[in-house]
Amino acid sequence: MRVRIDREKCIGSENCIVSAPTVYQIDERDKAVLIDPDSVDDDTLLLSAESCPTEAIILEDDEGRRIYPS
Questions:
Q1: pLDDT value at position 11?
Q2: CA distances from 38 to 9, 11, 18, 24, 45 (A)
Q3: Assigned domain for 70 exists
Q4: CATH number at residue 30
Q5: Average of pLDDT values for 6-25?
Q6: 52 falls within a domain
Q7: For residue 50, what are the domain limits?
Q8: Cα dist. 11→14, 45, 49, 50, 64 in Å?
């Protein structure tokens, strides 16, 4: 699974960090950035994406098809 962050949508709520602290961090612009998306399983990645209030976290399968948000 691939993870992308739409930084224009990100509001820095840190919900993703609560769900998956090894995957994300907040940068100097108060936006989420990826650190290690391979450090958790796919269910945890989905939970972190679903916890984002602005749907800024995008999940895709290995062929590039969007999984979340649909």
A1: 97
A2: 23, 23, 17, 11, 9
A3: no
A4: 3.30.70.20
A5: 97
A6: yes
A7: 2-65
A8: 8, 18, 14, 15, 25
